[in-house]
Amino acid sequence: MPDLFPHCRECKTRYHGKLAGVNDETLELLDMSKTCNLYKKGQRLIQEGTRPLGVYCIKSGKVKVFKLGQQGKEHITAILKDGDLVGYRAMLSDSLYHVSVEALEEVVACHIPREQFLKSFQNDKVLNKRLITDLSKEVISLTNVVTDIAQKPVRERTAATLVLLNSVYARNNPQGEEEMAEINLTREALANMVGTATETLIRVIHDFKEEELIKTNGRKIIIKDLKALQRIGGIY
Amino acid sequence: MPDLFPHCRECKTRYHGKLAGVNDETLELLDMSKTCNLYKKGQRLIQEGTRPLGVYCIKSGKVKVFKLGQQGKEHITAILKDGDLVGYRAMLSDSLYHVSVEALEEVVACHIPREQFLKSFQNDKVLNKRLITDLSKEVISLTNVVTDIAQKPVRERTAATLVLLNSVYARNNPQGEEEMAEINLTREALANMVGTATETLIRVIHDFKEEELIKTNGRKIIIKDLKALQRIGGIY
DNA sequence: CGCGAGATTGATTAACATCAATAGGAGTGG
DNA sequence: CCACTCCTATTGATGTTAATCAATCTCGCG
User: How far is the CA of B195 from the C1' of D21 (A)?
Assistant: First the structure.
């Protein structure tokens, strides 16, 4: 049985995640200062409105990143998985967390304390460049999301969301990865990503199923025609 | 008559803009490499889809930052003014411009070429920290925008947009700045910021006028009750 | 084998977009 | 200075989309 909390050197996420390629010294320092934890489904890693004490590196499992809007309705801004880093925006801008992060299933994540992370961010060129690039890209992508949500109808947004989720739920296949992923989220969560009501989301999913663009297995959604969904979602 | 294209040292934006506080050497280098230009209303500084050759520093006038969505409908993501920097996200992430930037009136802006800007970004601690902080904050703020646009009705978004624009159009008063700004945009542009149809925006503006929250002078909008609008817009 | 959360379907309503028509109002050429 | 014209603003009527409300229905699980 593999170690739940291995040394960063042995962590599988080291090769495909946000920390891929950092230098050995950085890895050593991060490892020394980290605290790993097992989170059960529904447990919170980060709570909106609190002060950031560090950064989480997700080792396994999936989390949802969300914000509460009007009447406590969740808006899910991302689903993150192994290798992803979360919480660094708030730290780098010295502000409170503006989102909450919650485990969707059993999750192992390591907490890297603020000071150590900032130090590594200063000293490690690769990490520095990666995060700056990511931040910039995130701004770009969020701008697109804003435009889309403002202008595209639910059907199109749903298609785009499914395409996005397909790559999140795809296995990290070292080889080819043509097999389609099983998107495993509640309808409510999907609706909260698309930005619509649960019932509306269900109707769109229903249509997609009739049009043979997807199939379902229980609540799991498997994409049958990725190209078509990309076309509907306006993804080029 | 003041020089249209002064040395950065003498540029008024030096004290309140994004470049405030950079060290003298940086300023000298930026000045040497910059190219200043006068843009007439409607002229483009940046065109979506092109490759970033540098960064623009706005010396005077206002520009709109926008993206084309479905059927060529504009979505305006920001109104920028003197002291603002634009175009650095694409450069830092090494991607194409994802937005266009167009002069809303007569604008003077200086172009800082890519290499010089990146060099200054590397070498100047203040600039580096400022941009990273700004990027992080921008991600946070865009996340909020996404949630809002997904969940808040037009009336609330309109109120929030007016509050935002009030500070953009406020004079850069060194002293107090209690006088209300004159927001001078076409109704169409306003609608494209809020993310709604022009007619709908006009009706909301009409309501606000009846409720004495704003007054108008031609197309200019002056806020009469900022607190109320903040409340309606859900700004805390 | 019943319980309960999540999924689904149908009916109704509300918000907003679209279409159509009219009215201002700033800039232009005579 | 005036008439003209185009662009923007405004208002009203109508149509669509999607939210809400109200039942079921289904399935994993104790």
Answer: 28
A63 and A21 assigned to the same domain = yes
For each of chain B's 236 residues, which pLDDT tens digit applies? Answer: 567 788 888 888 888 888 888 889 999 999 999 999 998 888 899 999 999 999 999 999 999 999 998 778 899 999 999 999 999 999 999 999 999 999 998 899 999 999 999 999 999 988 999 999 999 999 999 999 999 999 999 999 999 999 999 999 987 654 545 567 899 999 999 999 999 999 999 999 999 999 999 999 888 999 999 999 999 999 87
Answer yes or no: do B175 and B82 share one domain. no
Are B185 and B100 within one domain?
Answer: no
**Structural domain of B165:** 152-233
Provide, as residue numbers in chain B, all residues whose Cβ is less than 8 Å from the Cβ of A67: 143-144, 147
DSSP B157: H
Query: Is the CB of A203 less than 7 A from some atom of nucleic acid strand D?
Result: no
Angle, nearest 10°, between helix axes B226-233 and B154-169? Answer: 130
Contact B22, B15 (CB under 8 A): no
In A, which residues are within 8 Å of B49 by CB distance?
A: none
In this structure, the answer to whether residues B72 and B166 fall within a common structural domain is: no
Q: Any idea what the CATH number is for the domain that residue B160 is in?
A: 1.10.10.10
Cα distance between residue A80 and residue A134, in whole Å: 14
Tell me the residues of A at the B interface, defined by beta carbons under 8 Å apart.
Answer: 67, 69-70, 73, 75, 77, 88-90, 92-95, 98-99, 132-140, 142-152, 195, 234
Q: With the CA atoms of B122, B126, B132 and B137 taken in that order, what torsion angle do they form, in degrees rounded to the nearest 10? A: -170
